[in-house]
């Protein structure tokens, strides 16, 4: 576990795209990570994959968020970068 020189626990957070978070969440928590921020630009698979140049679906990221929550990594923050003409139509769906 990471600590300050005088032994206090650090408030460590991490930003991730969520691609391997489900597999690593418990190990990260055990190592001292306290919370995560997940980048998710759309809940639409095609938009998400195009914006992030990835070959996995949004459901993989959402599952990772659930697993991270169960591991005690929280509060979990979701970041959405809005790009006009690419994912601006998804803002309301993301808010839900």
Percent strand: 5-15%
What is the straight-line distance between the termini? 35 Å
How many DSSP H or I helices?
A: 4
Shape: elongated
CATH topology, what is it called? Transcription Regulator spoIIAA
Low-confidence stretches: none
Short structural summary:
This protein has 96 residues and is an alpha/beta fold. 38% of the residues lie in helices and 12% in strands.
Could you characterize what this model shows?
This protein has helices spanning 21-30, 45-52, 58-70, 91-95; strands at residues 13-16, 35-39, 77-79. The chain has a single domain, classed as Transcription Regulator spoIIAA. Helix 1 links the parallel strand 1 and strand 2. It has a three-stranded parallel β-sheet, covered by helices on one side. It is 38% helix and 12% strand.
Provide keyphrases for this structure.
3-stranded parallel sheet; 12% strand; 38% helix; 96 residues; alpha/beta; 4 helices; Transcription Regulator spoIIAA
């Amino acid at each position: 576990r990471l600590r300050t020189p005088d032994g206090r626990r650090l408030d460590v957070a991490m930003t991730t795209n969520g691609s391997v978070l489900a597999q690593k969440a418990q190990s990260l928590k055990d190592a001292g990570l306290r919370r995560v921020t997940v980048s998710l630009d759309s809940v639409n698979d095609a938009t998400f994959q195009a914006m992030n140049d990835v070959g996995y679906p949004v459901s993989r990221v959402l599952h990772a968020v659930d697993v991270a929550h169960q591991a005690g990594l929280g509060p979990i923050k979701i970041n959405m970068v809005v790009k006009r003409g690419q994912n601006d139509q998804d803002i309301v769906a993301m808010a839900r």
